[in-house]
User: Which sequence fits this backbone?
């Protein structure tokens, strides 16, 4: 009974987040962090950073992956199912209703202005989530080296209009991380001998 109540609380929280998130999964990260780390304290900051890395690097939308991960970590398989469905349902219903009246909906002046305002808010949400994650990052040469390298490459590629999928950034950085981890293990093994 206690677990069922917890899953219900998780379901309601995810419905709320799914209902009030504009701008996709990256904008949702700030809301997830605020709700699950700061307000409810259901997960730790380090665990949240790991969740973002896993949600970003696995196939599928980051919002759904993050909801599934949080649901599983807090309430097991049923929590994962409840969180995933809850985060998807509001968006599905809203988009379905908008699609019925799409042309009429977009022609409304107030709607156009509302979307402009929402775009600015989405940029802020994504930026604030990125800054919070940057603050939570372990301060060492390796992490800052990876961060600066990716930022430099992304900036140069953007300036010169080079098409390069973000998936490749993730795969390359993951490979570099595994490579340095293995090297550190080898060094520790040599020191023991």
Assistant:
């Amino acid at each position: 009974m206690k677990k069922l109540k917890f899953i219900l609380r998780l379901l309601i929280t995810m419905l709320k987040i799914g209902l009030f998130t504009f701008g996709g999964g990256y904008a949702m990260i700030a809301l997830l962090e605020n709700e699950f780390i700061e307000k409810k304290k259901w997960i730790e900051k380090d665990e949240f950073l790991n969740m973002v890395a896993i949600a970003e690097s696995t196939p599928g939308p980051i919002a759904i992956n993050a909801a599934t991960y949080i649901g599983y970590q807090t309430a097991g398989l049923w929590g994962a199912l409840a969180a995933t469905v809850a985060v998807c349902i509001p968006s599905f219903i809203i988009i379905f209703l908008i699609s019925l009246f799409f042309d009429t909906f977009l022609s409304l002046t107030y709607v156009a202005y509302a979307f402009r305002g929402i775009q600015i808010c989405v940029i802020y949400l994504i930026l604030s989530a990125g800054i919070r994650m940057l603050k939570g990052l372990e301060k060492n040469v390796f992490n800052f080296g990876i961060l600066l390298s990716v930022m430099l490459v992304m900036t140069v590629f953007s300036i010169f209009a080079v098409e390069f999928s973000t998936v490749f950034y993730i795969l390359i950085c993951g490979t570099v991380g595994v490579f340095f981890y293995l090297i550190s293990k080898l060094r520790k093994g040599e020191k023991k001998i």
Q: What stands out?
A: The radius of gyration is 20 Å. The chain has a mean pLDDT of 87. Helices lie at 2-20, 25-39, 45-57, 62-100, 102-107, 109-136, 141-159, 166-192. Residues 37 and 45 are 6 Å apart (CA to CA).
